[in-house]
Amino acid sequence: MNVMNLSLWWLALPVLLLPILWHRQKREQTKAAPLASARFLPVSEPKQLRVWRWSDPLLLLLRCLMLLALIALLADLVLAWRGDSVLVAPGTDASFVKQQALDAGFKDAQQLVLLDHDAMRTGAKPEAGPVERHVAVFSEHADDWRRLFAAARGSWNIVVDAQPGPRTELLVWDRPEPAPATLRAPLWWVTDAHTFPELDQAARVDGMRVTETPRGRVWQIAGWPPREPEAARAVFAAWQRLHLAPQPYTAPAQALSAEPNAPAGPASGALREILATLLVALFVLERMLTHARRR
Amino acid sequence: MPMLDSAALVAHTGKLDLVIRHVLAGLGHGIHPGRERGAGVEFSEYRAYAPGDEWRRVDWKLAARADRYFVREAERDSHVAVWLVLDATASMLEPSRAIDGLTKLHYARVMLACVAALAQRQGDAFGLVVCNGERAHFTPAARGPRQLQRVLARLNAVEAGGSLPDSEMLRTSLHFARAPSVVCVAGDFLDWPSALSESMLRLRHMRHDVRALCLHTEAEDEASFDAALAYRDPEQGGPVFRFGRDVRAAYTQAREAHFAEVRRQCRQHDVPLLQARIEQAPGEVLRAWMRRHKAGARAA
């Protein structure tokens, strides 16, 4: 076991010297030999005799054991302090780690490389980026729509096709005439409500009309395409939330399993109950013995 | 006589009469003041033998005739009474730190027993006063071998403890007859002036022959005590003392001053004082004590 892993409570072990000294000093003070010519000696305090003998060795032993059990109990309960530490995921660039530690004021801290299963798996299996969404736009303001979709690049990967195909997920119909009946898409964004007769009875969700038609789901909002960033963001959020599935959580839960080789630390608490029982027993014995000695 | 042999003998022999015989082996009759003629010089009467009598005082011709032992009694018993005064306070338990098991009390006991044996040989009456436990235990003076056995038994049974009796009690214990007495005091004289010292000086003023034996130990003389121990006065209790190289000079100085005062007062009152170490051979010390007395008597 590494020394650093030991609890600081073990530093209290010198307390054991106290009963040892106390039991020794009691012996010193009661020893005076008769000396007939003592009257000629100048009055002075007798020197304390340094005799390494102890009174009541059994009681002394009990007291020492009691203190030892107490220290062991405390050391078993309390976690050891590891000092300033920087946890480093395996494979992280060393210079980057150094820079980060310097910025955070952990220049002298020790660096602990995490075990593999402890590492955050955010970058463990990087996805290929956002899913490619194919969009077809029929509009007088096709440039506006292209600009809108281009602005979402990063979190979205939107490909604007010239003609709708089987992979088209969104069809923007920004024309006053009705769409041809042959066109089908999972989602329609329509600006003119007259192009789809089903929109008359459509429900309103988030300020837009939403309906299901044989040609696909139709959303209608007057005044599209949105001009402001807030409105554009709201549109994309609604697309994600209401039409596509909610995005998966980016950081998968950590799977922590017990590692037999990993240091469990000094404060495992395994001996806690034994030590507590021992401490109580020793305390009772010590009290009884002290009482018996006084009688 | 090798020093260690006899001093160790004092420490380890329980039977006082054996020690006396050993100590007095080389002294014979020559200690006593010479004007006395000694036992059995002028025949007076016979008396029956008692255990403790010297074999040479038995009349062998009479024994052959009568088939019983008779002892020739001296014409004249000495009129001198010998008083043995033993200081048996707690401080007399001070051990010799050189010879294991030897204390001042052991030594003083042997010295007084020897004096008693000498007195008995010469036909003097002798008595014993033991001062311990704030009391004075009194054994009246008498003559003869039985008295010697009695005194030796008393000396053997002495246990040191407590401190000296007060002067009033000592005064009543030491009310001697008008007869001239020899008073032999053995002690450590750490308490001076004390009731004992007052009594000694008073007896000296009453024209008694007072001779003092002051016992030290080698460790006291050389101020070499174990610095690792704490010390307490056995009689006064009180604070705990410490010995070390730094207090050694002060100890020596205070002790010297004390005993210089003791010596000065003894000289002033014409009390011969012998200071001896208990590690010394008892025979030599006894001889020196008696000689000191003779010198003092001659000077007087």
Q: Give the beta-strand count of chain A.
A: 10
Strand proportion of chain A, as a percent range, falls in 15-25%
Q: What is the total tally of β strands of chain B?
A: 10
Reading off the top of the CATH hierarchy, the class of the largest domain in chain B is best stated as: Alpha Beta
Q: What's the helix-strand series of chain B?
A: HHEHEEHEEHHEHEHEEHEH
| Oligomer type | heterodimer
Q: Count of helices of chain A? A: 6
The helix/strand class of chain A is alpha/beta
Instruction: Please name the CATH architecture of the largest domain in chain B.
Output: 3-Layer(aba) Sandwich
Integer-rounded radius of gyration of chain A: 41 Å
Task: Tell me roughly what share of residues is in helical segments of chain B.
Answer: 40-55%
List the total number of helices of chain B: 10
What is the averaged pLDDT score of chain B? 81
Element string of chain A (H = helix, E = strand): HEHEHEEHEEEEEEHH
The largest β sheet of chain A comes out as: 7 strands, mixed
Head-to-tail CA distance between termini of chain A:
47 Å
What does this structure look like?
Chain A is α/β, with parallel strands linked by helices. Chain A is built from 6 helices and 10 strands; from the N terminus they run H-E-H-E-H-E-E-H-E-E-E-E-E-E-H-H. Chain A has 3 domains: 82 residues, no CATH class; 34 residues, no CATH class; 94 residues. In chain A, helix 1 runs antiparallel to helix 2 and helix 2 runs antiparallel to helix 6. Chain A starts with 16 loop residues before the first helix and ends with a helix. The mean pLDDT of chain A is 77. In chain B, the strands form 3 sheets. Chain B has a 6-stranded mixed beta sheet with strand order 5-4-3-6-7-10, sandwiched between helices. A two-stranded antiparallel ribbon of chain B has the order 1-2. In chain B, strands 8-9 form a two-stranded antiparallel ribbon. Chain B has 300 residues and is an alpha/beta fold. Chain B has 10 helices and 10 strands. In chain B, a hairpin with a 2-residue loop joins strand 4 and strand 5. In chain B, helix 2 crosses helix 4, helix 4 packs antiparallel against helix 5 and helix 6 crosses helix 7. Strand 1 of chain A pairs parallel with strand 8 of chain B, so a sheet runs across the interface.
